[in-house]
Automatic annotation (TrEMBL):
InterPro entries: Homeodomain-like_sf (IPR009057), HTH-type_TetR-like_transc_reg (IPR050109), HTH_TetR (IPR001647), Tet_transcr_reg_TetR-rel_C_sf (IPR036271), TetR_C (IPR011075). It comes from Xanthobacter flavus. This is AcrR family transcriptional regulator. Keywords: DNA-binding, Transcription, Transcription regulation. Residues 43-62 bind DNA. Residues 20-80 form the HTH tetR-type domain. It comes from the Bacteria. One of its GO terms (molecular function) is DNA-binding transcription factor activity.
Amino acid sequence: MPETSPADRRRSSIGARRNPDAEAAILTAARALLAERGYAGFSIEEVARRAGAGKPTIYRWWATKADLLIDVYAAEKASHMALPDTGALWSDLLAYTRALWGFWRDTPSGSIFRALIAEAQTTDAALSALRDKFLPDRLRDLCHMFERAAERGEIPASEIDDRVGLYIGFNWLHLLSDRLADDAPAIERTARLISGQPPGRT
């Protein structure tokens, strides 16, 4: 029997491990589909068709649509954003927020995040994925910025969780209300408030 070409062969898993090429193809297909059709037009069936993968493969690696959305978001963010280290919390937050809003605004990732939040309101599995997987992974770098500030003596370590919560609320408000214009002065004012840095001080 003649061998089929690589383009025609269906991608498959390697035993219990993920096939890296198949995983990359699925994430790429999911990202493209979200960019083209948004959350309302997103389906595992269409992702499978575009990636040349079977639905059972996708569901073996991502138990729910929310799990797949989380991994698409994580891959996108890793390629677009780095953690700033300016030497002060307020300026770290300014740089990070401007980059984050640009990431949400200029890539499908803002839509992915909003879709994940919407999905979490309707299914327990999506809520669990958002609360137990997405948030701990996404907040790791953010918490590190606040921990560095505590080590420098800028903020009390006991207030890290509260300040992180305030910062998350600020960003989610702008994301969910689709107000992601790069307003550096407004972002700086909020960054200074959350970091306890008076206006005009460096």
